[in-house]
Amino acid sequence: MSSSSSRNFHEFFTSWLERQQVYVDELVDASNDPNNPKEKLVEKVLLHYEEYYEEKYKVIASDDIFQLFAPPWLTTFEKAFLWIGGLFKPSLLLRMTEMAVSNMTPSQIDELKVIKAEVVRMEKKGTDGLAKVQESMAASPLTELAKNWRKLVNGEASDDFDEATVKLMESLGKLVVEADNLRRYAVAKLVEILNMEQMVVVLAAIGRYQLRIRGWGVVNDLSNPKRVGVQPNLGMTN
Length: 238
What we know:
single chain; mainly alpha; 2% strand; two-stranded antiparallel ribbon; 74% helix
């Protein structure tokens, strides 16, 4: 990814988090008010997440997808939660639903168990896919070119290097899209299973969880300015 693309997404993500805080506050208020309309708020929050994925796909389509695996717009602490180019595994959302929603019916509990098992299986498939891409790198032209670095310096193997890099980016890009689609699938299934009041509770819980991790990460990074990835404008959230 060019420095311009990285900077643009960093700016987008900072403003996206600011809106996230506003939406979390609205979700918390709505969860405490039985007369507060829920459907439009849930729709607005889901569109907020869709906006994130749309901007993220611009990164995937750009010149360098590798930044998604060590995003400069995240704190060091947030990076510990990364799974295939995104924050959190989709199964985490389902586990948080189990903890946050105390009034699920037996039918909802059964449906959630089925979806959770399916999502966990798909997560394993994604993790295995990433491992295969990493293993393939050991047998790719990139490894041989690294051994013969003088050819790269002299420009003798630039075509081979470019071709191998493009193939690697395509493989990683496909994995990231599949992982994000699984995240979106998990949310879509929750919308089917839960009622609007329950969905508000879940969205508020996951939003607050993300913002707290962000806040902890900012404090930790600022307390250790020598830590790799620290940035002066990470932004602070509650």
